[in-house]
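Lecture notes, part 5. Sequence design as translation. It can be helpful to think of inverse folding as translation between two languages: the language of shapes and the language of residues. The source text, in structure tokens, appears below.
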């Protein structure tokens, strides 16, 4: 279970958790660069391994008029530019087999969205790129069942796998995190990540706009580190109220450093 072969990842000798963070979707080059610059400065200061995240396109939107992106190639080029400019690894979502080969030209890690984690052909296509593959656990699946997603990627010749917990459906409009799933998924000998942002979603709202509980970001993150999560995934923005996707459950960029400092204290305590 190693992150050593992720290109340009730093601070692995710090024994800290790693952080996957950025905007939900590429809104503009300016916003992405602003976020990446600030997060990199914080993670360098605190010696946290950092991976920049942004979706180049959002495929799973509730309404037809929801913002999905600024264009596939343009979005991917911005993510690639950030990786090169800041010398950091990058990750983005893919949704179809064809997207795997396309996105692999621009990023270091391919992310499988939770609602697609059982799509065999998509997992195989991602595996065959040779890139790291981060598989999000479906809201409808047990932690134990993610073994089969891992097997699909491994049996396709790729052992560079991560798993991400992002909550489980509790009724139609809420999610709950079962923290037993983190040590369970670690049995697959892969890094296990806690997706703070999407665990706090309140989906299926009558407005067609997903709600959220951002006041609980610290609670979810601290508990995840306490039970042994290897990484933290969160979406952040300098002004979540105007973010074009998932603003309701984003962390304000100004609050990131304090949260990271709190999580480092917990990590040190459980490892002492």
């Amino acid at each position: 279970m190693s992150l050593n072969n992720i290109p340009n990842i730093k601070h692995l000798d710090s024994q800290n958790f790693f952080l996957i963070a950025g905007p939900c979707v590429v809104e503009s080059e300016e916003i992405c660069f602003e976020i990446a610059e600030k997060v990199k400065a914080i993670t360098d200061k605190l010696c946290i391994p950092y991976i920049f995240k942004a979706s180049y396109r959002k495929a799973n939107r509730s309404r037809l008029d929801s913002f999905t992106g600024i264009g596939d190639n343009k979005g991917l080029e911005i993510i690639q530019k950030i990786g090169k400019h800041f010398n950091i690894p990058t990750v983005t979502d893919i949704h179809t087999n064809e997207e795997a080969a396309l996105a692999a030209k621009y990023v270091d890690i391919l992310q499988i969205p939770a609602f697609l984690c059982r799509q065999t052909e998509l997992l195989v296509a991602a595996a065959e790129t040779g890139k790291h593959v981060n598989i999000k656990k479906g809201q409808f699946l047990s932690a134990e069942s993610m073994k089969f997603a891992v097997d699909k990627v491994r049996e396709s010749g790729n052992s560079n796998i991560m798993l991400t917990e992002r909550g489980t459906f509790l009724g139609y409009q809420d999610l709950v995190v079962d923290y037993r799933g983190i040590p369970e998924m670690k049995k697959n000998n892969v890094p296990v990540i806690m997706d703070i942002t999407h665990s706090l979603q309140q989906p299926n709202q009558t407005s067609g706009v997903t709600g959220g509980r951002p006041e609980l970001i610290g609670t979810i993150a601290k508990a995840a580190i306490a039970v042994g999560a290897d990484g933290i995934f969160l979406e952040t923005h300098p002004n979540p109220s105007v973010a074009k996707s998932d603003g309701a459950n984003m962390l304000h960029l100004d609050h990131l450093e304090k949260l990271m400092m709190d999580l480092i204290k917990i990590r040190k305590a459980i490892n002492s």
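The translated text above is only one of many valid answers, since several sequences can fold into similar shapes. The chain has nine helices and 13 strands.
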